[in-house]
Amino acid sequence: MAEVVSPITRQVTKGSQENVTCFVDINVRDVEDCLIYDRHGVSIPFKTLYQDRKSVIIFVRNFLCYSCKEYVDDLGKIPREVLEDAEIRLVVIGQSAYHHIESFCLLTGYPYEIYVDPERRIYQKLGMKREETFTNSAQPSPHVKSGIFMGQIKTIWRAMTSPAFDFQGDLHQQGGAIIAGPGSKVHFSHLDMNRLDHMPINWLLQLAGAQQTIDFSHKPKIIHI
Length: 225
Known about the structure:
By secondary structure, this protein is an alpha/beta fold. The protein is 23% helix and 20% strand. Strand 7 and strand 8 (186-191) form a beta hairpin. It holds the Pfam family AhpC-TSA_2.
């Protein structure tokens, strides 16, 4: 899945870790008792994800969104030892019905934890946006390979060819990312402004304590820092 290469001391992100202004102050106590559902429809309280260890929790727009699919493609390439060495829990949250989880994991190759918040209670209480905002200064996501036009075509085609013919979530809902735990401590949070506003995965991993950087360009490889 990955190979070790020469070390680097700085990763490429949306700017620099020192100058970024995307941190949003949130309180996970507001959502700790909200229920999320696994691929079998079994519910657990949201707080279960971060009570015992530090967790990187990614909220995606919807499972048919091309940019979310390609972002989760790269999340699935993270070597398990990177998470285990840093004692990080990686979780994806969607907002579809739970029965869409299995097919989404098969499509993306994502092997880690994934749940859904079908009523979007956590999305709403954390203040995640329902409309897209684009700015001239925004930099493209390093994890999204498709252009907007082709990406939209892919999304529509997948919707048309899915058994339920639905978009597997609210099309207007934006996502975000938080790093929380152990306990209710929030170390970092970001609310996406639009479908391309994902935080770089390496940055999230390093903020959570990972000591390796992964090159997602073609063949994923670990770069020890």
